[in-house]
Specification:
single chain; about 260 residues; Fructose-1,6-Bisphosphatase, Chain A, domain 1; D-Maltodextrin-Binding Protein, domain 2; 2 domains
């Protein structure tokens, strides 16, 4: 089923790109979500509607989890569901940047089985199906072979650099940043960066598609403690994310300070 699901979500995510690019970033109506949850635009909602209409009509028995749909407990009783971020990097979209992305994944019994990330302004499409490998615009992907943190190229936010996170102080990697978590994961799968780190609680819709794309490219993707990622949780968050090539991932874990009791 994951192969047919991948074909479905790949077509849907390209549709999402056409919908989103029909809006002009800075001119799209935008407002702030309650509780400091960040901005949302009319484009986010239009993409969400287009994806929900397309995907749920094709798979009416699948559940639904999206950043822009009010969450309900109904999805918890469904073995398979779509996990959607209509626009990951909304601030970038508003600013007129080209680094925002759409993220669409299918989860079955907590495991991602099909995934797609698309950056329509750059025509960059990352895809994966469980056991079938990961691809960038149709070309197979393999993660970085880097094995040392010293000098590694890592995507992370500034708080990750706080020495309190590291057992012997920040271990000398070079930090870069992209606003979209989904895009960061795609770049790790593409081996343009050696790892992606975030130690904050992370929404499932930001991570779901990229997690499979990284692992199908040969990398490892866990929470910040090294535990496997599971999706469709009652509260749809993850305990941070460490995504890296197979040689570097254990080095990251061993360099982290022990978790507070």
């Amino acid at each position: 089923m994951q192969a047919t699901d991948l074909a479905l979500i790949t077509d849907a995510i390209r549709l999402a790109g056409r919908v989103a690019t029909g809006f002009v970033g800075k001119d799209a109506k935008s407002w702030d979500k309650p509780g400091g949850a960040g901005p949302v635009t009319e484009a986010d909602l239009a993409v969400n509607t287009a994806l929900e209409t397309t995907l749920r009509s094709a798979r009416p028995d699948y559940g639904w989890l999206s950043e822009e749909t009010e969450d309900t407990a109904d999805r918890l009783g469904q073995e398979t569901l779509f996990i959607i971020d209509p626009i990951d990097g909304t601030r970038s979209f508003v600013e007129g940047s080209r680094t925002w992305a759409h993220s669409v994944a299918v989860a079955h019994r907590g495991q991602i089985t099909a995934a797609a990330i698309y950056l329509p302004m750059r025509d960059k499409l990352y895809t994966a199906a469980l056991g079938e490998g990961a691809f960038f615009n149709g070309t197979p992907l393999t993660t970085s072979t880097a094995s040392e943190l010293q000098g590694a190229e890592i995507l992370a936010t500034k708080p990750v650099m706080d020495p309190s996170h590291w057992s012997e102080g920040q271990p000398g990697f070079r930090r870069s940043h992209r606003p979209s978590l989904a895009y960061r994961l795609g770049l790790v799968a593409e081996a343009r960066f050696d790892a992606m780190l975030t130690f904050r609680p992370s929404w499932e819709w930001d991570i779901a598609a990229g997690a499979l794309i990284v692992t199908e490219a040969g990398g490892l993707c866990t929470d910040k403690s090294g535990a496997p990622l599971r999706f469709n949780n009652e509260t749809p968050t993850l305990n941070g994310v460490i995504a890296a090539g197979p040689n570097l991932h254990p080095r990251v874990l061993s360099a982290l300070a022990p978790a507070a009791p």
